[in-house]
Amino acid sequence: MKKVPYLIVAFIILFGCKDNKNTTVSSYIPENVNQSVVYDTSNLFTQSERDSLTQKILDFEKQTTNQTAVLTVDSIPKNEDILYFGTQVAESWGIGTKEKNNGLLITISKNDRKIAISTGFGMEKTISDYECQMIIDNIIVPEFKSEMYYEGVSKALDSLFLLWD
Fold first, then answer.
1. What is the DSSP string of 37-105?
2. pLDDT value, residue 53
3. Contact 70/38 with Cβ under 8 angstroms?
4. Residue 24: what pLDDT?
5. What are the residues whose beta carbons fall under 8 Å from the beta carbon of 150, sequence distance 6 or more?
6. How confident is the model at residue 54 (pLDDT cuts 50, 70, 90)?
7. CATH topology for 37-164?
8. How is the chain split into domains, by residue range?
9. For the whole model, what pTM was predicted?
């Protein structure tokens, strides 16, 4: 009988604490109702730049069936990994075909100063995480330091599409 209070406390500790990582991330995932391939919630791009990036992405998709998107947000959940966040967004939006899992998402968190390139599992042999990081470090970041956001993303897409083709 003396063990009952201990069992109750143990039960509360085990089942009362839950990992709310997914609920935190899912509450930050923007709904892409228009299914835009450039979803610029941080307004980093002009309308003309959004149109140009959109056309570049759609032209590549027509040639290859590979699906690409760009997402800008002001911030992601505190202490969240941007690559994990981007992967959750890509899965939520359905980027890439189910058969090939050939989606790619460039995620930019403006206020957090974080960037990630999330790829579908079907692309791991085509574009490695290392290559994605090199594109971020050597192409995107130098342009972003000069506040040349469009140029950074456009050049990154060019490099990714060359690797992907």
1. SEEETT--S-HHHHHHHHHHHHHHHHHH--EEEEEEES--STT--HHHHHHHHHHHHT-S-TTT--EEE
2. 98
3. yes
4. 54
5. 44, 45, 46, 49, 52, 53
6. very high
7. Diaminopimelate Epimerase; Chain A, domain 1 (3.10.310)
8. 37-164
9. 0.82
